Amino acid sequence: MTKVKGELDLHKLEVFYWVAELKSFSLAASHLSLRQPTVSAHVHELEENLGSKLLSRVGGEVTPTNLGHILLERARALLELKRETLAAVDGFQGKVRGELRVGGSNIPGEYILPAKLGAFIRKFPEVKPILRISDSAGIVEEVMDGKVELGFVGFKGEDRRLSFHRTWRDEMVLVVPRHHPWARLRSIELKDLSKGNFISREGGSGTRRSFRNLLARKGYVPENLLNVTMELGSTAAIKEALIGGLGVSILSKTSIQRDLQDGFLKIVPIRGFKLERDFYQVFHRRRLLSPVSLAFIHFLKQHP
Q1: What's phi and psi for 84, nearest 5 deg?
Q2: Which residues in 39-95 belong to E strands, given as ranges?
């Protein structure tokens, strides 16, 4: 049986947590602003104290051992309690500072939130934003797991444990390479999409979900209308494929402004078809939001 030789040091536990979470000693050192040998020493001392290995290296990746997995969950809970306690003290004192943990799906995460977060920290310089980017389904899962406090996603979920609030509106458009035959047309019919090589987002994407839902409401079966030749995991990847002349796609108008200005891509209207969708702010109803998250929500209401 493992025998603990002394008390658990919360700082060393936090170092271990970030190594296990990031699966890397170097990334954990960078995140914590420590030297890598210091991180390694803290983890080694924690292992010595517990009398057992907590991490192992397999194929160049750091993974928790069986005991490491148990400690990781306990560390996550303790660090969450620490963060909530500090936030409560700051809230009582009227301060806005600390980590702002937000997640954004592809469009909000890459094209909207960076500017919003920049404006927010100019007003509150003691705030450190941590932005995680995934598809909409992934961000909703991270809100559920408590990895982020606030998420910004492209669909409204139905889980009653989560609260969704409409935050921004976006338009999705048919985008083609500048030398594509459709680029010279004033518009096309919706049914003409079947004639193009369509490049789609992955299954968890809010863009894909919104587009397919609208097609269904128009009486089309997406699988019958679209000739999907590629499925890519980000808007940036799709734009590169389009610029390379590999097909056509439906993308957020917000995401292609620079490409339109540079002349690499063209918008082709679809007659009688306008696709608008909303982005939603999401948080867990059963978790108290930190003062910094509440301040960011208030800031977005003032600066939509």
Answers
A1: -65, -35
A2: 55-58, 61-64
Q: What are the tokens at 141? A: 């899962």
Query: Please, are residues 106 and 137 in contact by the beta-carbon 8 Å criterion?
Result: no
Q: Does the domain formed by 10-84 have CATH 3.40.605.10?
A: no
Q: What CA–CA distances, in Å, run from 124 to 95, 97, 105, 128?
A: 9, 7, 24, 9
Give 5's pLDDT tier (boundaries 50, 70, 90). Answer: low
Tell me the CATH number for domain 170-276: 3.40.190.10
Ranges in the chain annotated CATH 1.10.10.10: 10-84
Q: Does domain 90-167+279-302 correspond to CATH entry 3.40.190.10?
A: yes
Per-residue model confidence (pLDDT) at position 116: 97
- Tokens read off for 290: 């930190």
Cα-based angle 207, 166, 213 (whole degrees, multiple of 5): 35
Judged against a pLDDT cut of 60, whether residue 2 lies above it is answered with no
- The string of pLDDT tens digits covering residues 239-264 is 999 999 999 999 999 999 999 999 99
Q: In Å, how far are 8, 66, 111, 146, 194 from 242, measured between CA atoms?
A: 54, 46, 19, 36, 17
The stretch 212-225 carries a mean pLDDT of 82
Three-state DSSP state, 92? helix
CB–CB of 279/107 below 8 Å?
Answer: yes
When pLDDT is cut at 50, 70 and 90, the band that residue 1 belongs to is: very low
- Of the candidates 26, 16, 12, 34, the residue with the CA atom closest to the CA atom of residue 61: 26
